[in-house]
Design brief:
The chain is an alpha/beta fold and 242 residues long. Helix content is 39%, strand content 25%. Bound molecules: adenosine-5'-triphosphate (ATP) and magnesium ion.
């Protein structure tokens, strides 16, 4: 579970990237975070993960305050950043072992999870190569695998489908569903509204740092009093703000 209360962030004293937002992402749900370029999604995610400090407001992950108990809070989640260009000099397998070391994953679990993830993402033959030599999608996959290796309860994914081929994207969506169905939490940002419409239990739409809508897509349809696609409603909501 992730709870944000009255969170704001201004960059350099001028750009109000996130403007007093409050959100609750419950256990057992896939929650989609949508919004145009520059809306404040990545800034919000970086505050949840403790990379950035909010100017005001509080954030907890499974009840642990990311500012007051950063280590405890960080043990609760796995984070996939929007940029998968990490540890390029390491071989895939070295990176996975490094992540497993950081999170103290036992040798037995580690072996089983690496085998399982490599098979699902078709990365078996690439694990011996340096990440430097990977394609964008393969880098995305190795970062995902590194996150999933410690089996975090809360998944925080910033545009995770970007660059994935259809099969990997399908597998990831399947894994997100399994994770939420097991009573855990998936929070992800995306620009792919079709995906959001299909897999999210709830969504929030952010624009210019403010939440315009938060709820189930059916609720949004009721609010609009029309049976429209998420895409149409999204465009209308975010354009009215101009
Ligand atoms: N490091 C930074 N310094 C100054 N301004 C920043 C910085 N990072 C982001 N911003 C600004 O904050 C606002 C929100 O950016 P953010 O990256 O959170 O948007 P986003 O919703 O993730 O967009 P995208 O869909 O393009 O990834 C934008 O106006 C952006 O220009
Ligand atoms: Mg972003």
């Amino acid at each position: 579970m992730i709870v944000l209360e009255n969170v704001s962030k201004t960059y350099g004293g001028t750009v109000k990237a996130v403007d007093n937002i409050s959100l609750t992402v419950n256990n057992g749900e896939i929650f989609g975070f949508l919004g145009p370029n520059g809306a404040g999604k990545t800034t919000t995610i970086k505050m949840i993960t403790g990379i950035l400090s909010p100017d005001s407001g509080t954030i907890t992950v499974n009840g642990k305050d990311i500012r007051k108990e950063p280590i405890e809070a960080k043990k609760q989640f796995g984070y996939v950043p929007d940029d998968p260009n990490v540890f390029l000099r390491l071989k895939g397998i070295e990176y996975l072992n490094f992540m497993a070391d950081i999170y103290s994953v036992s040798p037995g679990d580690r072996k089983q999870r690496i085998e399982n993830l490599a098979r699902r993402f078709e990365m078996e033959s690439a694990l011996g190569d340096r990440i430097q030599s990977y394609s964008h999608g393969m880098r995305q996959k190795i970062v995902l695998m590194g996150v999933l290796i410690h089996d975090p309860s809360v998944w925080i994914l910033d545009e995770p489908m970007m660059g994935l081929d259809p099969k990997s994207s399908f597998i990831l969506k399947e894994m997100m569903r399994e994770h939420a169905d097991s009573g855990k939490t998936v929070f992800f940002s995306t620009h792919v509204l079709d995906v959001a419409e299909k897999i999210c239990d709830r969504v929030a739409i952010i624009n210019k740092g403010k939440i315009l809508f938060c709820g189930r897509i059916e609720e949004m349809k009721e609010q609009f009093k029309r049976n429209e696609s998420l895409e149409k409603m999204f465009l209308e909501l975010t354009e009215n703000e101009e």
